[in-house]
């Protein structure tokens, strides 16, 4: 995976990486915040997230509009890892 910077959030702790073949994306989110990405990631059809404190897996709400991606606030008070997969 290679680090990329698409975050429009003021929170600098959000980290993102994409595989070289662009089939997988990983986003680390340190808190319960909405993630705003300045790139349309609609090529990733499947999204999952992992609550890093208890390893609970859930499907985040991801929206695409105007060339941007928005991942809604998740329901946990902990950091999560969000994974996007394309076919």
Number of strands: 9
Our measurement of the CA-to-CA distance between the termini, rounded to an integer number of angstroms, reads 17 Å
Helix content: under 10%
General form: globular
Question: What strand line-up does the widest sheet have?
Answer: 1-2-3-9-5-6
Radius of gyration of CA atoms, rounded to a whole number: 12 Å
Main sheet: strands, sense, barrel: 6 strands, antiparallel
Give the DSSP E fraction (strand runs of 2 or more residues): 35-45%
Helix and strand sequence: EEEEEEEEE
Tally of separate domains: 1
Give the CATH superfamily: Golgi alpha-mannosidase II
- In CATH terms, what is the fold-level topology? Immunoglobulin-like
Class based on secondary structure composition and strand pairing: mainly beta
The low-pLDDT segments are: none
Name of the CATH first level: Mainly Beta
Helix count from the secondary structure assignment: 0
CATH structural architecture: Sandwich
**Quick check: average pLDDT?**
90
What does this protein structure show overall?
- 0% of the residues lie in helices and 44% in strands.
- It is globular, with a radius of gyration of 12 Å.
- The chain contains no helices and nine strands.
- The chain has a single domain, classed as Immunoglobulin-like, CATH 2.60.40.1180.
- A hairpin with a 5-residue loop joins strand 5 (46-51) and strand 6 (57-58).
- It has 87 residues and is mostly beta strands.
- The strands form two sheets. It has a six-stranded antiparallel β-sheet with strand order 1-2-3-9-5-6, with no helix packed on it.
- The protein has strands at residues 2-4, 15-18, 24-29, 35-37, 46-51, 57-58, 62-65, 68-71, 80-85.
């Amino acid at each position: 995976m290679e680090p990329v910077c698409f975050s429009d959030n003021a929170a600098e702790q959000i980290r993102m990486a994409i595989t070289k073949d662009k089939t997988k994306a990983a986003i680390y989110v340190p808190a319960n915040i909405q993630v705003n990405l300045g790139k349309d990631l609609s090529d990733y059809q499947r999204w999952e997230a992992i609550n890093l404190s208890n390893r609970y897996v859930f499907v985040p709400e991801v929206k695409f509009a105007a060339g941007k991606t928005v991942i809604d606030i998740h329901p946990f008070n902990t950091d999560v890892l969000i994974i996007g997969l394309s076919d």
